[in-house]
Amino acid sequence: MLHNKSFVKKTKAGKVMKQVREHYLRDDIYCGAPFCKVCDTSAARLSDSASTVLVLDTNVVLNQIDLLENPAIDDVVVLSIVLEEVKNKNMAVYNRIRAICSNSLRKFFVFSNEYHRDTYVKEMSGETKNDRNDRAIRVATQWYQSHLGDAVKVLLITNDKENKRKATEEGIRAETVESYVKSLARSDLLDLVVRPSSEDVDMEEVEDLRPSKRKVIYTEHKPMSEITSGLHRGIYHQGKLRVNRYNPFEAYVGSESIGDEITIYGRTNMNRAFDGDIVAVELLPQDQWREEKSLSIACDEDEDEDEDVHLAPSSADDAPRTIPQQGSIGETNPISSRPSGCVVGIIKRNWHSYCGSLEPMPMPAGSGGVAHALFVSKDRRIPKIRIQTRQLENLLDKRIIVAVDSWDRQSRYPSGHYVRTIGEIGDRDTESEVVLIENDINSRPFSSQVLACLPPLPWSVSSVDLTNPIRQDLRNLRVFSVDPPGCRDIDDALHCTALPNGNFEVGVHIADVTNFVHPGTPLDEEAAQRGTSVYLVERRIDMLPKPLTEDICSLRADVERLAFSVIWEMTPEADILSTKYTKSVIKSSAALSYVEAQARMDDSRLMDPVTTDLRNMNSLAKKMRLRRIEKGALTLASAEVKFQIDTETHDPLDIGMYQIREANQMVEEFMLAANVSVAEQILRSFPSCSLLRRHPTPTREMLEPLLRTAAVIGLHLDVTSSKALADSLDHAVGDDPYFNKLIRILATRCMTQAVYFCSGDLSPPEYHHYGLAAPLYTHFTSPIRRYADVIVHRLLAASLGIFKLPPIFRDRPQLTSISDNLNYRHRNAQMAGRASVELHTLIYFRNRPTDTEARIVKIRSNGFIVFVPKYGIEGPVYLIPRTEKGGGEWYVDEQQQKIKKMDGSLSYSILQPVTIHMEVVEPQPHRPKLQLTLI
């Protein structure tokens, strides 16, 4: 049956045109019930023994997805109209409901009601789209009831008061989520139910979660129409709210409209905004701007206070990256202030699930054994969340996941609901799982559909591969790899052959992952979603399945493997004379660790071919590195920590700073060169759709903390260009062996993040990579662990005419979306890695109180932040006890960046060495921390 749908569309020229689309209706769309006497049951998904079939409305799917993911909820019909509405409103929830529907273990059936002759409904005159969709849901529910007859009870689940009323009038059985879950007699499921808001149905069914005092605490959020108008007129400023990770009472909003960070002080001014929300901010009057000298290190006890008594320093990952100068404690000498503001509206929420533990509330339990509790997230930036639960005793010693539902103006805390239990608090596996969940890392096993894309094992290079005209046989080359010890996912190898003319042929050979990961397959889609492999202290979460990462693609020694090669002819002075790109077959002759490669180069008695190649490559790499530095490339430093892990218990046995050797720098140099060469090649061929990587130039404001610190210690840093800064850092030497490294670490923290982008989205001057002083850069050398490199391999192959460019490269918005996801996943992987280091640092020092030397890196009004070189650890040292309001015996000299006693007996200054005691303490339940105290 053919039905015509007409609608009007406005053209660019302003004309209104009527468009008609054909909409085919069918009568052979089946209901999905295996016991149906009419339909084909070969594709049935509902269970044989179903006594009740649920039909869900859109808001139930949007708001109750945690409940729907529980296996106790089954025999559910998801209408296509509901799926489409969910897709338009919340892509994350859409992906979750699709995952349930495609899970063969769940009894969820997608019914195409919009294409069934008996369930399609036409729009009625004067009817809103929402009302039409609700009517379509009721019509489909009614059809199911008459279609299945008395064999089963069909139940519409809705929390919409009006929809439920109309359903009842039309003879349809309808229930709210809560009443249906109560009928299941599963008290644990009630914890998962998101409570209806006041405009929804049957509030008498809902236990009262509201606090007893109903005074208004927060101002009402402005409606979007008013926000849009205010942004247009410059009254409001839009940006992402970032809460200081050391202190939940201080946040920052980067505003392009005023070109500065707006500081938000206190929960009242944050006005129910969460970390990561896109907010509209109104500037406070200038006389209310907080003076920068008021910043101090926050204490753990502060989190229970109504307002911000102590304010914290910015971390490397929190804005502003500037470290404000300190004024004297208790004094009022005015110094420059940052713009301060308050949140007037939420443009886009960043609510998701949070990990933490429960803190029982001193409130009487509600009816039916319901207890009220406050959930405390492990992430200090997240406010406590009020929940109600029927299983309080079982949850008190557990790490659990809680989702936020709402935040009433009259409540000090947001309201949420329990999602699931992770495990025992303090258990290493539980806490590692928390790290993954908090950083949105997908660690689930690969699905059967993904694994079905892999070639059968054992895999080896075939005669077809060797005779393929697109692939060059390079097995005769003396190829070797140099990686961290124990590396099994080897995606790069090198060769260096002396040529008769005195030059060198140098090759970078990268695992040919795209030979096995084809566009549009489940394997490709999974890799695109994961974006990158994640490296924790004790394990690795792969982007691709292990058969690929550790066997089929890994360039292991003494086995033939497929590669994508970049081969240069270089002079002895490391000048590139020619560049060639080719798919290849290689056979690595050695898989060396950095330590082994360095030992070979350093042992003058060794003259074997591989060692000679290593020395030649190292000689070229040094010249390449020198040339990069002369162009302005920065040599920065980070506090990278290396753990020695017990192979059986996975507990840390030792901890220390990661050692960088010449062998590391040699490999890095050739990887950088390959990435630059490939960037040039793909951009030449595809100027509007190449995936590149840029590093924006830091602003003067971002570099201010570095300049201020340098000035105090008598060091002049020129930051007019990356070259000037690199030269200044080279000259920043002192008697202290750690001095230069500390200055470079401080410089690193002033930098912007490097990001992926689509070349068509920016102009060529914006492609520049500041840190590498390179006009063009991309990622090509690690396709086993980065999806960006997979994309670049496809671009390179297309530029060489090996394969056609996949259609997705013609879809600019889709490419931009992929870039955004890659940046998100890359940053999350970094944060997860750091959190894993923090966790294992706590485990290591739990029974090892230690005295050691540290360096002061930031002065604050109640103490200072120190860096511990031996362990790569940073943390606060308090000089003023919490009980000393105002701390009158200490004075902060803002000019000299010193904190000293009023009587002159003690003084501490920036970069000064101090001896500290490190010990794990637990000032708040379930929140252990490494406490640093001055000796």
TrEMBL record:
InterPro entries xrefs? Dis3_CSD2, NA-bd_OB-fold, PIN-like_dom_sf, PIN_dom, RNase_II/R, RNase_II/R_CS, RNR_Ribonuclease, Rrp44_CSD1
GO cellular component labels: cytoplasmic exosome (RNase complex); nuclear exosome (RNase complex)
Tell where it localizes: Nucleus
Q: Give the UniProt record's GO annotations in the biological process aspect.
A: nuclear mRNA surveillance of mRNA 3'-end processing; rRNA catabolic process; rRNA processing
Compositional bias, Acidic residues, is annotated for 299-308
Q: Which cofactor does it need?
A: Mg(2+)
Statement: the UniProt record of this protein carries the keyword Oxidoreductase: no
Q: Pinpoint the PIN domain residues.
A: 52-165
Which keywords does UniProt give here?
Exonuclease, Exosome, Hydrolase, Magnesium, Nuclease, Nucleus, RNA-binding, rRNA processing
The lineage's top-level taxon is: Eukaryota
Q: Which GO terms describe its molecular function?
A: 3'-5'-RNA exonuclease activity; endonuclease activity; RNA binding
Q: Which residues form the RNB domain?
A: 471-802
Which residue stretches belong to region Disordered? 299-335
Q: Where is the composition biased (Polar residues)?
A: 323-335
The record's comment on protein family reads: Belongs to the RNR ribonuclease family.
From the Swiss-Prot or TrEMBL record, give the protein name: Exosome complex exonuclease RRP44-like protein A isoform X1
Give the source species: Senna tora
Q: What is the lineage of its organism?
A: Eukaryota, Viridiplantae, Streptophyta, Embryophyta, Tracheophyta
